[in-house]
Amino acid sequence: MGKRNSIKSEKATISVSSSAKNSSPSQKGVNAQLKELKNKYNYECSATDPVVVNLDIIPKLLFEGMVSQKATTVENAVENLADIFRLSSEKRIEAYQAGGHAVLVVTMKKWRLNESIQTSSCRCIQNMSCTNAEAKESFAVVGGMEAVLNAMRTFPKSQRVQRSACGALMNLLSGSDEERAILDAMADKFVKEWDGIALIVAAMRNFPKEVKIQLWGNGLFQNLAQNRNYRMKMMKSGAVTAAGGSLEQHSDDENIKQYASKFLRIMFS
Predict the structure, then answer these.
(1) pTM greater than 0.70 (yes/no)
(2) CATH superfamily assigned to domain 27-194
């Protein structure tokens, strides 16, 4: 089995996303944006807890903002964290090493009815797992994939939750042959225990014009279809019909056409 498709981080240049920029931002520009985010969050939290202002941004967000009892504070913290992860691979690693993966899952469970927190948390998981095999395994251990799927079930009509969740799932279930053991274990649970295929199909049906949902849905299908044991389940869940709908709705999108067409070729090979 070859390398499975991955979307990397939200801002990475990738071969599968028409919305990705052709080049990554300069380091100078990234540093400026990170500084702006840090200053913004320092201002937001200083009024309530000036003691934490001198903490570095990652531990401040993880261990002050995200453990707050106030919904707005948690919303701001996880949104800032998602934006930082989008810009900096170093901050993603720092957060993972500090146990950020566990904090995210606990936060999603605690605030399961908060659409904003679920959206930003899925974005964080997408970016933390994009180039970090250890993070994927850790998310599997602490229930990261299950938390993402629960967000999809709770907010079936929320385009932003469904889009961010599809991105997180794409990365959690994608990687190289060296990651096959953990990828196969997660894929088995995704397909057999959590009925994840049906959730992806539902998202694609509910948001037929949303490019990223269609793209990442077909990417997931392509990855999963490489395992023959999943193909009947995919047929019964409507994955083939969903892929056909993507091709019809997005006939001018080369990336969607590539993923959907390859998925269908694999299914009927």
Answers:
(1) yes
(2) Leucine-rich Repeat Variant (1.25.10.10)
